[in-house]
Amino acid sequence: MVEPLSKAFDNNVWFWKIFAVWIQEVGNKYYKCYAVIFLISLYFLYDGLLVLNLIYTPRHIETFVPELIFFVTEMAVLFKVHLLLFKSKSIQKAFEMLDCETFTGDTEHQIETNKRFKSLYKKYFLIYFWVCQICYVSIVLIPLFIYFINGNELHLPICNYYFLSEENRDNNILSWFSYQAIADYVHMTYNYTVDTFISGLIMMGLAQFKVLNVKLAMIKSSMDKNDLPESKLDAKMHQDLIKCIKHYALLREYCQIIENIFGTSMFFQFGVGVLSNCITLYAFLLPYFESQLIFLTTYASAMTMEIFLPGYLGTLLHYESAEIGRAVYQCDWIERSESFKRSMRLLVERSKTPIELTALKIFPLSVTTFIAIMKTAYSSFTLLRVVHNRESSDYN
Transmembrane segments in this chain: where (predicted)? Predict the structure, then answer.
């Protein structure tokens, strides 16, 4: 039996259930009580304290930037949690489409392609998972370990909570540290499970376009002409073409659904991408982060990956969907009936508008958009570096 395509996302859904953002899909009333308490204490309160901390942070660039790193990331996490809380019905619909017979396939090539892309997605999930775990260990667990072993001064891992008095913060350092450590792990999990999920949805659509292009090209060789009279052969080939047209229509509907799922989230993800990459680059210049190069490197890698991969996959999907018109011309259409050619022309006309996934219909998910974001981030970084050098020279 062919494994459903949606099974590739089992790890994502498992984490969403554990961390209380899969509320609408779990009918248990006790789970809903757990979810409300969990979200209030580790999501809304945590975000509120981050905002309060930023308000009280001294307006000096070397002090302000370290406090801004996680706050910027949290701006994107806000919309990712919104996606999970309010788009779960659409996510379930996307899962149902992935598991339908048209997508799971009835040919060896389609089954193998789906299997390959599911395996590729699971590898990507594991890579992203471990990059985030290394980042977390370097910023939270290693300083805590050094504190207990060597008795070094312990600083709060995420932000300094400037709204607290120094006495309060120092006397309750372990309590505040533990709260930030737990909440940060939860929010980090929201981040990488949604990022990988968005890329995974695009990846599965890309797999279907690859399958469809092969199906169209293979219509001419999908049966032995000597076994069927011409009329039955034409009817059989026309039937295969109609199946491909239905597959294409379903695939376009799937792309509309997934764009609706992640449109808002990706808009803010790409928007915040400029700020987060700029701030991360600037952080490498600060003495505060000299002992945290592992954290900065893994954090920068994760922030770059979460905007690069959707852009890269969006570009591949666009190109693969544009191949539909060319693929259909590879079938044995010249000697076919007029009804076959009419169906063929219908598919060609529809394929003249390739799929282009966008963020809120404002900008496309593409490599071009990613490059523009990185260029803007670097330009902002150079400006910030000039300000930093000027402040340093004035101080000296």
Answer: 33-56, 68-86, 125-149, 266-286, 293-313, 362-384
What integer pLDDT is reported at residue 14 of this predicted model? 95
Residue 242 contacts residue 215 (beta carbons within 8 Å): no
In sequence order, what are the residues at sequence separation of 6 or more whose Cβ sits closer than 8 angstroms to the Cβ of residue 14? none
Nearest to 312 by CA among 254, 357, 247: 357
Query: Which residues are CB-contacts of 368 (< 8 A; sequence separation ≥ 6)?
Result: 311, 315
pLDDT, tens only, 288-313? 677 778 888 888 888 888 899 999 99
For 93-103, the pLDDT digits (tens) are 999 999 999 99
What tokens were used for 54?
């930023």
Cα distances (Å, whole numbers) of residue 188 to 37, 128, 206, 289: 19, 11, 27, 20
User: Which residues sit opposite 364 in a β-bridge?
Assistant: 358
CA–CA separation, 16 and 19 (whole Å): 5
CA angle, residues 95, 98, 104, in degrees to nearest 5: 145
Q: How do the domains of the chain map onto residue ranges?
A: 5-395
Tokens matching residue 241: 């073409």
Handedness of CA 26, 38, 15, 311 (dihedral sign): positive
Distance CA 6, CA 27 (A): 20
Query: Model-level pTM?
Result: 0.91
Residue 102 in contact with residue 247, Cβ under 8 Å? yes
- pLDDT confidence of residue 230: 63
Phi/psi for 217 (5° steps) reads: -65, -25
* Torsional sign, CA 369, 375, 381, 383: negative
Judge contact between 193 and 101, C-beta under 8 A. no
Q: Which residues contact 66 (CB under 8 A, 6 or more apart)?
A: 159, 283, 286, 288, 289
Nearest-10 crossing angle of helices 108-136, 10-18 = 40
Of 341, 332, 359, 40, which is closest to residue 198 (Cα–Cα)?
A: 359
Closest by Cα among 250, 269, 355 to 310: 269
Q: Where do we find the tokens 């809903």? A: 32
Q: Is 335 exposed, middle or buried (0-12, 13-18, 19+ CB in 10 A)?
A: exposed
